[in-house]
User: What shape does this take?
Amino acid sequence: MRKTFTSMLRGSTLALGCAFVLASCSGPANESAPAGKAAASVAATAEPVTDGTPKRLRALTQEQYLNTLAYVFGPDVQLNPNFPPAQRTDGLLALGTGRGGISSSQLELYQKAAVTVAQLVVDEDRRKFLLTCTPKDAGAADAACAAQFFSHVGRLMHRRPLSKVELAEYVDEAGKAATSLNDFYRGLAVSIEAMLISPDVLFVVEGAEADPRNAGRQRLDGYSLATRLSLFLWNAAPDDELLRAAEKGELQTPKGRLKQIDRMLASPRLEKGMRAFFDDMFAFDSFAALAKDAQMYPVFTGVTATDAREETLRVAVDHLIAKNLDYRDLYTTRDTFISPRLAAVYKLPATPTWSRYTFPEGSPRAGILTHVSFLAVHSHPVRSSPTMRGKALRELLLCQPVPPPPANVDFSALENPKATLRTTRDRVNFHLENPVCAGCHKITDPMGLALENFDGIGAFRETEKGQKIDASGALDGKPFKDAVGLGQTLRNHPALPSCLVKRAFAYGAGSPTTNADRPLLAYFTTKFGEEGYKLPALLRTITMSDAFSRISEPKPAPATGENTASAPSATAVAANTK
Amino acid sequence: MKKRFLAALIAGCALGSGTAFADEAYQDRKIGYTIVGKNWAIYQTPDGKAECPNGLNDGPREQFDKLYPREGHHKFAASQLEREGEVWLPDSKGDDRGLPFYEPQGKIGIGLDLDGKNDAGDFTSADGKVAGIDNQIYRVFGCVGNYRGPDGSYRFFIQEYMKKFNYNRMLIEIADLDDMVNDPDVTVTVLRGRDALLLDSQGAFAAGGTQRVDMRWGKDLIKSTKGRVVDGVLTTDPIDITMPESLKRGSANLLIHDWRVQLRLTEEGAEGLMGGYLDIEKLYNNLAQNWTTHYRSYGREPLPSEYRAMIRNADAYPDASGRNTAISSGWEVKFKQVFIVHPPQAVASGTPATGGASVPARQ
Assistant: This one.
């Protein structure tokens, strides 16, 4: 019986997986020009009217799934299911959650996680506080108690109330299993497991409704809006209060929505949400594959890599949320956090655990560009890379895509450089001698060379092969003399805040921005500046905007039928399969 | 590096803080080191025949076989207990019941000239450049397998305990240091750290770790002396110290009279020799207490015989009767650079982070 029920859900999940692949293949639109000063100058004082964003069908990320489980069942319900990563799309992994399918092996991972959680929930110690009722007979089915449990937990996991049919199904299956196993709790676990791999739980299927304030337009329905808000700000499913606001329609009123957003911005969950956002924006998933040559950089261990990632995320959260400071100063701040492992690279004393540290005035380090994270991730295993660092700075922080090298590029001059080319600057200058290379390298290398005082793991060096390092450079015509100067120049670059705005809106809405969004992004950027480039203010502006909840009109389906304009709901797919 | 250090110093003073910048192994005219390697200074030729022409000494098993042949019938108290009793109540008189004990032969040895004299029993370095080396403990340990490289078991265990234990965390802090190549006047302090050693990605000891000074149990171990750096080599004036040590069965802090070091300094670490006079009774007691018979059996170490050799070769600190109570000793030592944190005054201002105390901005 259990097998049948699980197989049923497996079938529905696979079907949904196929469906959402088709629904999400529109991909990012071309958007080459950075939204900088020019874009900001056209910003209106009021939010420009845009088409909004499409309804999205996307998979919960592993973090979102685990965060939700922790919030619903408690932080000690921990597991490491190793869900497959999403495909980075338009600069964000979050946008890749709307692409791809679910293979049977992936589903197996979900199921293993679900089994573990189900067992933990009905564990003798935990059941006392995770279950809101006690069965009349622990050795038999108890429909009333099971219904009480699933109506409460199912609402949180499904991010909406369960339908009568859904609730009855969970209760019935739990009852059958309890009868078969002579154990109420084991029976309950069977249905919990099924719920946790339900497509309605694993996938976010946004729903729309007519917008009464804008005739002819659609908006997210209340529960979908709650989920969009919660995944954006908390990286987890909505809590009870947010769902209640959705249920009452309060989220669809400016006052009600603002109340919830301010509550969410004040919640400790915001930290996890923003850690996830910046981890994504900074492409820190690269750490998963980061390796340094043990002979060249023996001090760099796996713990160093983990701590490097943590350092920058701690600084981002501390600077932008705890202290509510100017986003641009993230690139100049000397405040950071140090672990013992990082201290060995920074050549600093450390406490046995994480501690605050401020690089002194005159230190070559200021801002997150001089963190081990950025410097090590954007380097080769055996040496630094001005090109990789410059490219990362352009793409990740300024949203300026750098084209890949031509297919017939000749690397010999770099890999077997002349003996006279002693420093990295000497070698990469070769790029500028070749017109084919120069086009791109002149927009990456000058910034990357400013970080040459830091080797392939981010350790400071004054010289390279006996030559004093020249770390001077320029960013879009603004000269500087070293990494600190680069940080200051980047801080004042108009594309820096506009890039954050673009990433935040795309991340929150779950879909890539398009050229049509440029006036909207310019408006957000202007407002961001007016409010001192404070992240919470930007999050409030974005989540309170009409664009955040407005749903764009579905495009007509092509005659070939290869693309579908909107995804079928998970419930519909599941219902058809059931 | 000197140039940079001076520039940093000038800048630091200009800021009124008197401190150097970050990313420096030494700051505030200080550099710290933690011990990561320590072996008795044992001179060895490749086949050992020059210094140990009779081969290596017998250990507990071999001696037991000679004293109590297997074909005989031996009472427990008159065999096992008897010999074990001699470990704990060693006798310096007599000839150890006819058991031989081989001391290293020859004049070549490793170590420091502790007394400024070149006495008859002193050694000369292999290259002939240093004479008057005082390392009489070599006469005791030199032909005992446990102490010889590369695989004498004590050599392995003592390095292993560097990772495993913390009580052996001997720190050296060099202060008033203006130049790591030549500085005629520096202050050298010995302390005990209480943190694990930093390991690199290959499991080797790495520079750049942090050691908090043990002010609870290690306060009495803090001793300072003066020294000088000549051509990158630090030499210190003699001082009595207690050397923190962790062995298998406990903390065997050793009193060393006239301790001093001769270390080549770099920003990454220091390497060289350590020397001084060890109190024989305390040394012997430590060896007996901390290494059980099976450890001594690994490396054929006859402890009662060693005691006689210690008495025989003792060369300093005579008691009222004129009998020397201490023996000159030498160690080959390796240190890695660490940041030494002195509580509480060295903890810089700063708001403690979640779950942790603030880190010193600089020392």
